[in-house]
């Protein structure tokens, strides 16, 4: 596969590897959490596709999918890759690419084991690892597209100045302003960290193109579409943190995440 420029091109490559695979299980999870010391309640929704020994995942917005998605269980993976819903297509592509080349077997990936602990302990460990992905000097402006408070803190601890964008948050627990439009922050940034949710909401292509045009590093922290995002390493994506389902917030036990870095 030549270096992709768009998410659609990666989905197309997933069609080439899907073959006769079947989506054995398709379901969604609606999840809420509020970390200690924060008044904000995070609400996330993920559609999951099980293929062979892999799960694919993609976040979606409220009302975008309903329980009928479970009726896709047992359908050919190729059919899900043609589904009208972008999050379903991304989850199916993530499953296909993750089954073909698991993160645990990728020689580029550094295994990081998140510790057993409370939601706060695990979130802080995860987000500290994400903040390590990019090297930036003290005072650098780091755009964070998809805001979680522990990652804001981790960027500050490394000397960065967070520039924040999120469609579902207006202020952090420290009263930092959060912009609804990522364009408000990315044009002023020296580096960008974006959530995998951008793959499903249609903003990733523009973020990637902007970072390429400005020649600034882009890291993605991905629960959504981690194997899809991995396809952009060395082609505009500098670094990636990848988790597979079940994600860190769904367990109190030690669990893996995979760090890819050093590509441009």
Automatic annotation (TrEMBL):
Residues 132-216 form the Putative heavy-metal chelation domain. It holds the Pfam family DUF364. InterPro entries: DUF364 (IPR007161). Gene3D superfamilies: 3.40.50.11590. This is Putative heavy-metal chelation domain-containing protein. It comes from the Bacteria.
């Amino acid at each position: 596969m030549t270096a992709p420029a768009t998410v659609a091109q990666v989905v197309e490559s997933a069609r080439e590897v899907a073959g006769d695979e079947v989506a054995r299980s398709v379901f969604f999870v609606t999840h809420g959490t509020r970390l200690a010391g924060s008044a904000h309640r995070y609400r996330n929704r993920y559609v999951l596709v099980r293929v062979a020994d892999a799960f694919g995942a993609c976040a979606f917005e409220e009302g975008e999918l309903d329980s009928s998605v479970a009726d896709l269980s047992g359908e050919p993976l190729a059919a899900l890759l043609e589904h009208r819903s972008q999050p379903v297509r991304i989850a199916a592509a993530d499953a296909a690419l993750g089954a073909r080349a698991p993160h645990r077997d990728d020689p580029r990936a550094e295994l990081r084991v998140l510790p057993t602990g409370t939601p706060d302990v695990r979130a802080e460990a995860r987000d500290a690892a994400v903040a390590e992905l990019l090297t930036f000097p003290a005072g650098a402006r780091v755009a964070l597209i998809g805001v979680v408070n522990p990652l804001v803190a981790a960027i500050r601890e490394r000397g960065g100045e967070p520039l924040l964008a999120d469609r579902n948050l207006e202020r952090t627990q420290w009263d930092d302003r959060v912009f609804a439009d990522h364009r408000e922050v990315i044009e002023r940034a020296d580096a960008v960290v974006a959530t995998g949710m951008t793959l499903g909401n249609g903003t990733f292509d523009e973020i990637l193109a902007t970072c390429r045009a400005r020649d600034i590093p882009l890291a993605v922290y991905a629960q959504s579409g981690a194997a899809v995002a991995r396809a952009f390493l060395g082609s505009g994506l500098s670094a990636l943190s990848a988790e597979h389902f079940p994600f860190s917030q769904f367990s109190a036990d030690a669990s893996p995440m995979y760090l890819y870095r050093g590509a441009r």
